[in-house]
Fold each of these.
Amino acid sequence: MSKNFDVVVIGGGPGGYIAAIRAAQLGFSVACIDEWKNAAGGPAPGGTCTNVGCIPSKALLQSSEHFEHAGHAFAEHGIDVKGLSLNLPQMLSRKDTVVKQNNDGILYLFKKNKITFFHGRGAFVKNDASGIELSVTGKTNESLIAKQVVIATGSNARALPGTPFDEKMILSNTGALAIGAVPKRLGVIGAGVIGLEMGSVWRRLGAEVTVLEGLPTFLGAVDEQIAKEAFKLFTKQGLGIQLGVKIGTITTGKKDVTVEYVDAKGDAQKAVFDKLIISIGRTPNTIGLNAEAIGLKLDERGFVQVDDQCKSSVTNVWAVGDVVRGPMLAHKAEEEGVAVAERIAGQHGHVNFNTVPWVIYTSPEIAWVGKNEQELKAAGVAYKAGSFPFLANGRARALGDTNGMVKFLADAKTDEILGVHIIGPSASELISEAVVAMEFRASAEDIARICHAHPSLSEATKEAALAVDKRALNF
């Protein structure tokens, strides 16, 4: 016998579980279907982000940064560390504990909000006058009837053609987070967010890391000035980054992986690695949804086709997050999840893509919101730029972390902030001030006139805003 709900959410990642919670807050009867399993086979909601993405990668980034600081930076602070050693199993265990805490937190939130959770794989069965029927395949099979359905099934790592992931030698983000011993030679194909973050983790722990990127430019989506600074700092740290390469044959042996490629000069090269991480993007996770059963339209790449309200081609079926157009970011998925729940309730949910922040959690961190210089130039927008280096910031000096800068871009006539770009300590936290400012359509002068605590890293934000008008006070 089928179980009836007002709203059924397929997927328990950031977009899905947040949509379920907001729908429940609005008074709907809600169910969430999610198939992620923990090591014991139990439910592990949170999607890629919680299980093999944002959360575990940040745990390892933090642990590996502590290790690097203990080995190299503590002496400058008068802290002598003798006999430093790496306990990798404990580091990985801590990462797993952090993941489980987040899994359990989501299950608690489901219970708190009276959301019915089904552990299994959700798929469409049919759509008729009684509602939208879905099946749940798991330890126990269920049949659900929904008035409204929200698809939040996320994405999967994209493999190179002919080179499937085995998560032992050829690794996606999943395998990259669970390497049992530090590889002597680590190859990374793709110099995007995942490639740089995972490359940074294992470099800090002792691996010789080579990053092979097909594009001729480094971090093409990042402001060019910030990207150049990042390239300089990452290569100085020891990441071997090669741009403009063309990957050829990849051969997996018993103990190593051989990558043949053509470098930017056109010369044939060969590199041998103990492990190879492939991070060349992600694909929407729609296989198995049985979309055709209800006439749900997918595009040629497998994304659910939606309008600007996240409505699909089928009435009362919505989709959010990585499975639809737009940036594949957990917080973008969350905002869409909230907006859809509110639209179902007849409210006016809103998501402003122009104020979605982006972050790369390397050291230094990179964060930005809005337009970069190359985008403004291409669009013919007249703008003013102002920047301020952390080298001239008192708190950064006290921290011993003075790399990077804050950069403001503002409209030449109105002074409205068009974009803010940061590379440096705590960039992921500092960017929030810029997001708030841009949501309220603030000017650079507005930020320049706000009192910022001293000494703080946020003073670099104020100084960069002052620099737009060429009146920075400390540089």
Amino acid sequence: MDFATLMADINNFVWGPVMLALLVGTGIFLTVRLHFLPWRNLVYAIRMIFRHRDEHEGDISPFQSLMTALSATVGTGNIVGVATAMVLGGPGALVWMWISAAFGLSTKYAESVLAVKYRETNSVGEMSGGPMYAMKYGIKNKFAGRALAFLFALFVTLASFGIGNMTQANSIAAALSHSYGVPSYVTGAVIMVLALAVLIRGIRSIGKVSSVVVPAMAAFYFVTAGIVIVVNIAAVPAGIVEMFRMAFSFDSVAGGVGGSIVASMLTSMRWGVARGVFSNEAGLGSAPIAAAAARTDHASRQGYVNMTGTFFDTMIVCMLTGLVICSSGVLGTINPATGELFSGAELTIAAFSTVFGDYGKLIISISLSLFAFSTILGWEYYGEKALEYLIKKRPVIMGYRILFGLVTFVGATTALEVVWNFSDTMNGLMAIPNLICLLWLNKDIADECFEFQREVVVKEKKGEVVDMSCE
């Protein structure tokens, strides 16, 4: 067995049924443990996104923190991942994406609460936080806590160069090359220059850029996808019915809007949960690193704000992609250029092309480029903070920023499947210490949640203004 095959096998195991069950199972446990408050307070949480007070401790506003987290989560998975899931798992996979995201709300809330609760200030006055600090300071068994923190930080640092960098740059280069013949080295050079211009100045620069790019790209995709859905509105009801029918059918089924797609309930569940978790990253422990940088008066407030990232990523953006594909009539049809089923980005392009014609390629190319570039920015911050936990020296951190920017060129111009499998494995391995930490510190999470509900949420829902000092 060669190294590439070995890495592929390890990656398939890491992202296999056991990991997916652990991720969703932790979400279910936390949802019940928190008395379903993350669900009950979702509307309240969305309102909190725009609450902005500069006097609180932190580096960026709650909105910028959420946009930084969303910049890393809203990526190629929302376009390519959804299409892949619907081909391999049928339209029902989208339903399982929503179900996993519903429980992911509690997971994202919990990990963000711990990130703010246990954050600290670094040598240059910036906030440093995330699961590694919760493990180090929250877990009473110091050996276990520090060991888990080391492993998590190591996995994040290694994953940042692959999943958060090279794969994203390569997706942009491939999209522009296939659609418009743009040379990969040109795309790589542009991405590298733009990335370095933003990354070299740190989190405040990333937060400002993300707060503009993420809403703009989301609005662009929302409008264009909405047009496709409206034009194909006659097929939408049948598409939704087919999604739920295939999601809960124990027998292999085919037909309807699914074309020649055949999938059982278990297959739909497997691909829906896998792509949902990959898209919104709930339970991986990455988004809380951005949450720790936010200016906030209470850990739970930012927990609720960052929790909405899972809602927007999977329940809105992924849903739009799924409805576009289901209503277009191209799911399960043959691509005449390849003689195989439409899949991945090609399927999404074909769906958009039913309304926009040749402009479908342009829309997906723009969306993929914006989604992927924003992911590069968000993941640089995750990797930087993880490396900072391992090595405190500032020259090393500045060197990481420059190296990260330069590596985007390598990713855009080189196909490195072994590196991608390795980094994908690291991405999955991040979840193990993070989920252990969430289960270990579930009492801390519950105490923060119930206190905030009692002292703040109930009063603010009545119209009172409440401000708490962050402990």
Amino acid sequence: MHFLQQHGYRVIPVNPQITGEHVHGEYVWRELAQIGEPIDLVDIFRRPQAAGEAVDEAIAAGAKAVWMQLGVINEEAAARAEAAGLKVVMDRCPKIEIARMRLPKVES
């Protein structure tokens, strides 16, 4: 999260176990539906078998894309997301990909 913030991205944490706390200056929400603003990308840090639930929440929240972290592979969830019009990245890490592609920081 901090790495993405350092590169100019706003990251809104969602974690029912620590709802109401703050992480790197951002309030932690219980679920995506509570955020109340457009969601570009849902970065999924869940076991592969639990990723489907996060994908379904992303679809319902109107997210534009889902990103499943390294080791998170769920073909059924990816197919549902793509069928709903979301872009899908699976089994990758944004930190590694940003460094690999040497993307510039986003201007605020």
Amino acid sequence: MSVCENYKEVEKRVEEACKRAGRKREEVTLIAVSKTKPVSMIEELLPLNVRDFGENKVQELTAKAEILPSALHWHMIGHLQRNKVKYIVDKACIIHSVDSLRLAEEISKAAQKKQVTAKILIEVNVAEEESKFGVRTSELLPLIEAISLLPNIAIKGLMTIAPYVENPEENRWIFQKLKNLSIDIKGKNFDNVTMDVLSMGMTGDYEVAIEEGATHVRVGTGIFGERNYTI
């Protein structure tokens, strides 16, 4: 199947998941995760009015953003090193992967220099997997409180990367937990903090994530096919 056919299939499944959950289709942003994929594949999707793309590496995001139309929305979804922040702070529509105060301070500093407000999500390691980045749920509130005081930063919500599972139902509790955390935080009424975005669900489990309240799903393999990491 072509990239466009894959996208249409994913789109159909997103729509069906929204229906099952009694949600409107426009409540969910489908991010096409284009990491490691060539610009030509992204261009194939543009006639379908696809505008949201996700990248894992700063260099790849900035290179693609330079070549492709400026109307596209680039989501930084990979682990972000502090020394790379300055390259991305005015290019990413949302940085999904903030998991420390030091990283947030660097983003704040770079955003002030570029005179922008950086929109960020706090990455939560809900499953507490050793191999994953993200803050533990017990550390989430103090971190949000500290980041909310920084200038030129707006916390827009939460993000998680659920474990890889054969059966997506196994990750349902993770998505429920992230949703509940966002409700708790919203109730605290911190300045510069809204909980409008829940970035959760990938190729294997995005339908379950939508049923549990995801506003942004990150689908790569389901749209672009398997990745070759040896390149």
